[in-house]
Amino acid sequence: MTLSEAILWPGTKVCRLLGVDPTADAGLIRWMINTLVYLVIGLIVVWIVVV
User: Fold this and answer.
1) What is the pLDDT of residue 27?
2) In percent, how much of the chain has pLDDT > 90?
3) What angle do CA 46, 10, 38 make, to 5 degrees?
4) pLDDT of residue 10
């Protein structure tokens, strides 16, 4: 597994669970899911550091 596959893994996994090809539609669904996952992780890290 390459670094890019590891970073894109959450979106790829969700797309496969939904029955959607992760590379279809230029990967926009996978991109959206990855953005939400890493946004939540980032906000948790910031919250821990600030508090």
Assistant:
1) 85
2) 75
3) 15
4) 94
Residues 6+ apart with CB under 8 A from 20: 29
Lookup: tokens for 31:
């991109």
DSSP assignment of 18-51 equals HT--TTGGGGHHHHHHHHHHHHHHHHHHHHHHH-
CA 48 – CA 6 distance, rounded (Å): 24
Residue with tokens 């029955």: 19
Buried b (16+ CB within 10 A) or exposed e, 34-43: beeeeeeeee
Residue 22 CA: distances (Å) to CA of 2, 10, 48: 17, 11, 32
